[in-house]
Amino acid sequence: MSRIDIAPPAQDHAATFAALGDPTRLSLLGRLSGGQAQSIAKLSTDTRLTRQAITKHLHVLEGAGLVSSLRVGRETQFAYRPEPIEAARSYLDEVSAQWDAAFARLKAFVEK
């Protein structure tokens, strides 16, 4: 049985997709996507999650490059970074175009 090698671009985006695979992290990104950096205290308002749980999710997002953190006094502010999402979207657009081309070839072959 042969092993399938994953192309480097797919590996590059794996952390982004993994981080986005959790509803809490998606919600946090949605709250941060407005452009304003927010503290853990502010992000934990209107949620049942503890600050510790929010912190763990933010660290996963930061590890994937989706947010950045900056220490401001006694608080850490987190800000959304759109570059990984834009890169993943470009990658998905490329994959979609490849599939569209493959389906077009299949359709042409079947309709002969």
Q: How would you describe the overall organization of this protein?
A:
17% of the residues are buried. A 3-stranded antiparallel sheet has the order 1-3-2. It has one domain: Winged helix-like DNA-binding domain superfamily/Winged helix DNA-binding domain (Arc Repressor Mutant, subunit A, Orthogonal Bundle). It has 5 helices and 3 strands, in the order ααβααββα. A hairpin with a 2-residue loop joins strand 2 (67-72) and strand 3. By secondary structure, it is of the alpha+beta class.
Fold topology:
Layout: H1 8-20, H2 23-32, E1 38-39, H3 40-43, H4 51-63, E2 67-72, E3 75-80, H5 83-110
Antiparallel strand pairs: 1-3, 2-3
Strand fraction equals: 5-15%
Strand tally, please?
Answer: 3
Which class of secondary structure composition applies to the elements? alpha+beta
Q: For this structure, what is the CATH class? A: Mainly Alpha
CATH superfamily: Winged helix-like DNA-binding domain superfamily/Winged helix DNA-binding domain
Portion of residues within helices: 55-70%
Instruction: Determine the mean pLDDT.
Output: 88
Major sheet summary line = 3 strands, antiparallel
CATH topology: Arc Repressor Mutant, subunit A
Cross-sheet strand order for the largest sheet: 1-3-2
Q: What is the 3D form?
A: elongated
Domain HTH arsR-type: 6-100
Pfam families: HTH_20
Organism: Labrys okinawensis
GO molecular function: DNA-binding transcription factor activity
Which features characterize this protein?
112 residues; HTH_ArsR_DNA-bd_dom; alpha+beta; Arc Repressor Mutant, subunit A; DNA-binding transcription factor activity; elongated; three-stranded antiparallel beta sheet
